[in-house]
Amino acid sequence: MCNDDDKAEAALTGQKATMGGKQVSKTPSPTHAGQADAELVRAARSGDMDAWRGLYDRYAPLVHRFSAALGIPHDEREDATQDIFIAVYRSLRHFRGEAQLSTWIYRIAARHAIRLGRRRRSRELMRLTMLKEKPPITIDPSERSTHVATLDRMLAKLPPKKRTVLVLFEIEGLSAKEISDVVGCPENTVWSRLHHARAEMVKAARRMVS
């Protein structure tokens, strides 16, 4: 027997879960392709795994791109995306439609990325403390161009709150109001963080070329 999280994960990974002697697989239904978000959310809440898979297929690229921009390593992004969507599934009953579904998913993804970053920094600190050596700096040239790699390094130097606002505004194209909904702060705070983030990026770029 499997619980709801098992079924939700099976729908995303392609694995089969067992429930009451029957198998639940991930096979998506093409009939959901043209449905509105609200319809898919209602169906997924009712246990429709095809609808849930439809939501995932619709928004996974957004979450994957956002995770990359927030610094989640390439080899962790697929697992991070699935973890974020399991969190989305658990919280679907709380979604009231007051914000766009994408904004609500951004909010969950941002929290998850910040938690991952904290755990990664803690692990790295412990490793460095034990080995007493500097962390290696590796860039995979086959994955990203030099320009994108440089941008990633510059973004990595920003504090998480400023980085999240900058990524949401400049890369994801959200408005200040939408960003305030995602990060849970007033719009004037969003503009302030954006201003300081841009200034820090300009300084970092000047240091790189000087």
Write the layout of secondary structure elements.
Layout: H1 4-13, E1 17-19, E2 22-24, H2 37-45, H3 49-69, H4 74-91, H5 101-131, H6 146-156, H7 160-171, H8 176-183, H9 187-209
Antiparallel strand pairs: 1-2
What does this structure look like?
The chain is mostly helical and 210 residues long. Helix content is 68%, strand content 3%. It is built from nine helices and two strands. A two-stranded antiparallel ribbon has the order 1-2. Residues 15-29 and 125-137 have low confidence and may be disordered.
**What are the segments in which pLDDT stays under 50 over at least 5 consecutive residues?**
15-29, 125-137
- CATH topology label of the largest domain: Rna Polymerase Sigma Factor, Chain: A
The gross shape turns out to be: globular
- What would you call the structural class? mainly alpha
The residue fraction in helices comes out at 55-70%
